[in-house]
Amino acid sequence: MWFRVAIILAMVVGAATVGASGAIHLHLWFAGYRHVPRIGPLFLAQSISAFVFVPTIVLSRRTFAVLAGAGFQAVSVVGLLLSATVGFLGIHDGLDVPWASTSIVLELIGFVVLATCGCALVARR
Predict the structure, then answer these.
(1) pLDDT of residue 48
(2) pLDDT at position 15, please?
(3) CA torsion angle for 68, 73, 74, 79 (degrees, to 10)?
(4) Is it the case that residue 120 has pLDDT exceeding 90?
(5) Chain-centre distance of CA 24, in angstroms?
(6) Does residue 22 surpass a pLDDT of 80?
(7) DSSP characters for 26-81?
(8) Residue ranges of the domains in the chain?
(9) pLDDT of residue 67
(10) Phi and psi at residue 78, in whole multiples of 5°?
(11) Neighbours of 35 (CB within 10 A)
(12) DSSP 8-state secondary structure symbol assigned to residue 94
């Protein structure tokens, strides 16, 4: 019983971080990233995908959805770190741009929570 409650709680927390990341990317898209070639559409796609992942993770409660959410958070972190360091698709931001530190913390927490949850589900089988 406790395992099931812990897993569902982890799914909800992980999905919340995915949703928060999507909200940040949508806000930044509206704030001006929509005008940035190549990156603008990716910000919109990231936010739309996040808003699809949230109910999928919480309502389906499937291992695949949880692990896909973890992968989604990992890819978001990698994209941010690439753009902050070596550049990504012609964009070179730093970690001092608006919402970068909040975004990376949320995405890392989401990755850890969802990856741990997914691994626990796989191990439980």
Answers:
(1) 97
(2) 98
(3) 130
(4) yes
(5) 10
(6) yes
(7) HHHHHHTGGGSTTHHHHHHHHHHHHHHHHHIIIII--HHHHHHHHHHHHHHHHHHH
(8) 2-124
(9) 97
(10) -60, -45
(11) 9
(12) -
pLDDT value at residue 23: 97
**Rounded distance, CA 51 to CA 57, Å?**
10
Residues in the chain: 125
Rounded to whole angstroms, how far apart are CA atoms 75 and 71?
Answer: 6
- Indicate if the pLDDT at residue 62 is higher than 90: yes
CA distance 14 to 106: 9
- Locate tokens 């990317």: which residue? 25
Spatial distance between the Cα atoms of 31 and 7, rounded to a whole number of angstroms? 36
Q: Is pLDDT at 70 greater than 80 in this prediction?
A: yes
- Which residues have CB under 8 Å from 107's CB, separation 6+? 17, 21, 73, 74, 76, 77, 80
